[in-house]
Amino acid sequence: MFRIYLLFILLFPNISQADQGLNLTCKNLLSALGRKYEPLNFKLEVTGFHYFDKDHNEFKVIPSDELVFGDDMFVAKFPEYELGFQRIVYAGETEQIITMSKYDFINDKFLAHYECDVETTYID
Q1: What's the 3-state SS for the chain?
Q2: What is the value of pTM for the model shown?
Q3: Digits of tens for pLDDT over the chain (124 positions)?
């Protein structure tokens, strides 16, 4: 009986559907002026927004119900700032890109702006 079960598993592959997510790799726009910045990496999934917390040296997740979503944007809020991601089209271009802005809401100013490369990924 075990052999039949094993043969069945080997001959009929597991067909499953996985949810899709986005891997976001964001480069500071000042990099275009020759400054050196490490890219920031994030993952957006149905369950939440994943990021690496350098202060605590660990991966963390902001649950989806704590994110702010709009038609062409979403915002991840942190205690001192927020990261706003938005789809835009530069003047004269036709292809949409994702940009990110780091906004210090305590001092009411933008700290940095980023252009993000987006890769669709499947969640296991």
Answers
A1: CHHHHHHHHHHCCCCCCCEEEEEEEEEEHHHHHCCCCCCEEEEECCCEEEEEECCCCEEEEEEHHHCEECCCEEEEECCCCEEEEEEECCCCCCCCEEEEEEEECCCCEEEEEEEEEEEEEEEC
A2: 0.77
A3: 545 444 444 455 555 555 789 999 999 999 888 889 999 999 999 999 999 998 889 999 999 999 999 999 999 999 999 999 999 998 999 999 999 999 999 999 999 999 999 998 876 5
